[in-house]
Amino acid sequence: MTVLPVAVPEPDGYRTQLAALGTKLEYLHPALRAGEVARRSATRNHPANTAGTRAYQEHVRIIREMHIRHEGWKRLLHDHLELVCNPDRTVAFGVMSGDGATGERTFPPRNARRRGAATKRVAEDNAAQLELFPLHRGNEVVLSSEEAGHLQVWFLVSRRIEAGDKVYVHNELSLPAEVVDGYVSEWKRRILLPVFEMDGIEPPHEDGGGEIDIPVPFR
Length: 219
What we know:
Blueprint: H1 14-21, H2 25-40, H3 50-71, E1 74-78, E2 81-85, E3 91-97, H4 117-128, H5 145-150, E4 152-163, E5 166-180, E6 183-199
Parallel strand pairs: 3-4
Antiparallel strand pairs: 1-2, 2-3, 4-5, 5-6
């Protein structure tokens, strides 16, 4: 009788690593989709930064909803960071925009926009933890100071690129270890995820015409 080899998971397989954190790609990519849809709802008549703000809000909302609904996680506002936290209060997820190295194995990414002191503090806590904590172990939670010190805060880092009539969102779930001058300079762990692809870019409805500049004389 032929003995078939036992399938051994790829050491750095993203699905295995996501499962160890209690999540799935199926919970993360819908957040990217929702963000892209929200981004496209902004027109040139909206205030500047509307598209990015809407995308961020949907990223947070969907990543929370998917984990609350399917895994029993809780909303968490931790040190001004909008997160979702596992029931054991050991792992939390947030979102951030990354630069051109996002999702690339060779070079570590940086966040695209400067982060506040809260990200620096959670990175310091991440770095101080010696090893990954056991991961299988109202919808809002408040952490004690002791729990906060043991919490790993991961970020779904994403970078969108338009090419032709498609949008490619490079992404990874990563654990910052150091923040310098508002930018992540070191990651403790990175889980590279498949590129998320969307097509059908439709220009938002606008009322025509371009911008005008009305000179205002000084008096």
